[in-house]
Specification:
CATH superfamily: Class I glutamine amidotransferase (GATase) domain
Strand content: 15-25%
Number of strands: 11
Largest sheet: 9 strands, mixed
CATH topology: Rossmann fold
Strand order of the largest sheet: 2-1-3-4-11-10-9-6-7
Number of domains: 1
Shape: globular
Order of helices and strands: EHHEEHEHEEEEEEEHHHHH
Radius of gyration: 17 Å
Number of helices: 9
Structural class: alpha/beta
CATH class: Alpha Beta
Helix content: 25-40%
Length: 261
């Protein structure tokens, strides 16, 4: 299996992330995929720096990462990223979008994206409820109703594009997971970050000054500290790698099934 990972941060943003001790979203995502399926091969495209690979037929699927840019996905500045996604859809590749990647798909497919009226959702998205469609969709297989997941975002999908199916949402953000299987698209997306641990999120929030020291300490320890996890509205088991990465594992299984068809 060969997966194209689309780095959704431009070079200046990546430079800031590296200076703070972070890693590129694309490279980090590649490592996570290999953790789930060690034989997974990856390639990384960076549309803000160039047109990307000329031949998408060598890939079995594509992932669009999160992003730390200030602009919305419908902004003209996001056009290089949107053009890459349009190419992926035209090629018929199964596509996964996380956070900015899901917002991008909503914009590309005709939905509406904007800042959440509830403000930012940083640290953990709690009480994510599955819709009727979500309870039977393969992306959410293994998820319990009311789960929590690492997250950090300002924007949200304000109106779903035609053909999109809402799979999950919570009180802060009504659109936490969607799927689209119309118009040639084979897209799954989450607003939350199944590829990141709460400790990863804590480091980001600390560097950007987006949370309190106490909450950052709880996020850092929640994967092993039951009391810290409870204060955040989650559990150690829920934040174990296997459970946290449920959607990624299910998507890789989906890609594998497509390869065998």
């Amino acid at each position: 299996m060969r997966i194209l990972i689309v780095e959704s941060n431009p070079a200046p943003v990546l430079a800031v992330i590296r200076a703070r001790g972070g890693s590129d979203s694309g490279a980090a995502f590649a490592a996570v995929l290999r953790e789930i399926r060690p034989a997974t091969a990856t390639g990384i495209a960076a549309p803000y720096g160039g047109p990307g690979p000329a031949d998408l037929s060598v890939y079995d699927g594509a992932i669009f990462t999160g992003s730390a840019v200030d602009w919305e996905t419908g902004d003209i500045r996001a056009r290089p990223l949107a053009e890459m996604m349009e190419r992926v859809f035209a090629a018929g590749l199964p596509c996964l979008g996380v956070c900015n990647g899901m917002l991008l798909a909503a914009s590309v497919l005709g939905g509406v994206v904007g800042a959440s009226p509830n403000g930012r959702e940083d640290g953990i998205a709690s009480g994510i409820r599955l819709t009727r469609a979500g309870r039977i969709h393969p992306m959410m297989a293994g998820r319990n109703d009311g789960f929590s997941a690492p997250c950090t975002h300002r924007d949200e999908v304000r109106a779903l594009p035609a053909g999109a199916v809402l799979l999950a949402g919570n009180g802060h953000c009504p659109v936490q997971a969607i799927a689209v299987a119309t118009g040639g698209a084979d897209f799954w997306g989450t607003q939350y970050h199944p590829e990141l641990s709460l400790a990863n999120i804590a480091a980001t929030l600390r560097h950007r000054g987006l949370s309190t020291p106490g909450r950052i300490a709880d996020l850092t320890r929640a994967a092993t500290d039951h009391a810290a996890a409870a204060r955040l509205g989650t559990s150690v088991g829920e934040q174990s790698p296997a459970m946290r990465m449920t959607e990624l594992t299910n998507w890789l299984d989906h890609v594998a099934a497509r390869m065998g068809s």
